[in-house]
């Protein structure tokens, strides 16, 4: 699942770690993925290793606390 896209890698890692801390699941890891948006690099903050249902439940929990979140397929690169 993706919890945001940020101008710096450190912002993305912080956001992903904060989201991860709210998810009570084993085997969940944080990933930061750089991506070009025009001439700008954005860093996608992702939490990986959840099942589809787990990701949907985690996103609902994050959104209820006014966080951003969207679920992604495991092989999603976009």
Strands ordered across the widest β-sheet: 1-3-2
Instruction: Give the N-terminus to C-terminus distance in angstroms.
Output: 12 Å
Put simply, the count of helices is 2
What is the number of strand segments?
3
Q: How do the helices and strands follow one another from N- to C-terminus?
A: EHEEH
Radius of gyration from the alpha-carbon trace, in angstroms: 12 Å
Question: Averaging pLDDT over every residue, what do you get?
Answer: 91
- Shape descriptor reads globular
Beta-sheet strand percentage?
25-35%
- Please mark out the parts with pLDDT under 50 across 5 or more consecutive residues, or reply none: none
Number of domains: 1
Helix content: 25-40%
Main beta-sheet strand count, sense and barrel state = 3 strands, antiparallel
Q: What structural class is derived from the secondary structure elements?
A: alpha+beta
CATH arch. level architecture:
2-Layer Sandwich
CATH domain class: Alpha Beta
What is the CATH T-level topology? Alpha-Beta Plaits
Overview of this protein structure:
With 78 residues, the chain is of the alpha+beta class. It has a single domain (2-61), classed as Alpha-Beta Plaits, CATH 3.30.70. The protein has two helices and three strands, in the order E-H-E-E-H. The protein has helices spanning 9-21, 52-64, and strands at residues 2-6, 29-37, 40-48. It has a three-stranded antiparallel β-sheet, with helices on one face. A hairpin with a 2-residue loop joins strand 2 (29-37) and strand 3 (40-48). The N and C termini lie close together (12 Å). The mean pLDDT is 91.
């Amino acid at each position: 699942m993706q919890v945001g896209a940020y101008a710096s890698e450190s912002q993305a890692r912080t956001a992903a770690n904060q989201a991860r801390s709210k998810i009570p699941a084993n085997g969940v890891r944080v990933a930061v993925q750089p991506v070009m948006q025009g001439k700008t690099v954005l860093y996608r903050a992702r939490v990986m290793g959840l099942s589809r249902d787990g990701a949907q439940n985690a996103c609902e929990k994050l959104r209820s606390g006014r966080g951003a979140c969207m679920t992604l397929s495991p092989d999603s690169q976009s």
